[in-house]
Amino acid sequence: MMSTDDNRLEHRLERRGAQRFEVHLPLAVHFEGRTVPGFIEDLSGRGIFFYAETTLPQGAVVELSFTMPSEITLGENMPVRCRGRVLRTSASQAGQRSGIAVQFDSYEYLAANQPGAQFVRVSAGGTPGAASGPIPH
């Protein structure tokens, strides 16, 4: 069950879903049983663009772990885990890292006091839909 603070955050993300924020934060990319470090370039409620020292095929399903910054949550920094699909990949000028755009399918808040946080689905319009667990109140 999500707390009232999580519900407020969800609505803020919903409202700001189309707005893209330039943030420079580390993230972990989980794909096919391996984890690679990456670096976020920008982020919105619907997706993310980051650089990583790996190439990912278009359409690949990935899981990303990072801390949602306070500029977006309008409160505390919050650790999250997101699932999504790779929309596109482009090589950087240095040729060592790939720029990767991912559209979110769902996300999960990883609050320290909530070990069993649930994934929240993100619809095509960027608004959270039916959650995979109990309905939040």
Describe the 3D structure:
This protein is mainly β. The protein has a single domain (4-128), classed as Thrombin, subunit H. Helix content is 12%, strand content 48%. The chain is built from 2 helices and 9 strands; from the N terminus they run αβββββαββββ. The chain has a 6-stranded antiparallel barrel with strand order 2-3-4-7-6-5. Strand 8 and strand 9 (128-131) form a beta hairpin. The longest helix is centred in the first third of the chain and has 12 residues, at 4-15. The protein is globular and about 35 Å long. The termini are close together. Mean pLDDT is 76; it is low at 114-118 and 124-137.
Summary tags:
137 residues, mainly beta, Thrombin, subunit H, 2 helices, globular
Average pLDDT for all residues: 76
- CATH fold node name: Thrombin, subunit H
The CATH architecture assignment turns out to be Beta Barrel
Beta strands, count: 9
Give the low-confidence spans.
Answer: 114-118, 124-137
Could you name the CATH class?
A: Mainly Beta
- Proportion of residues in helical segments: 10-25%
Task: Note the run of SSEs as H and E.
Answer: HEEEEEHEEEE
Corresponding CATH superfamily: predicted glycosyltransferase like domains
The SS-based structural class is mainly beta
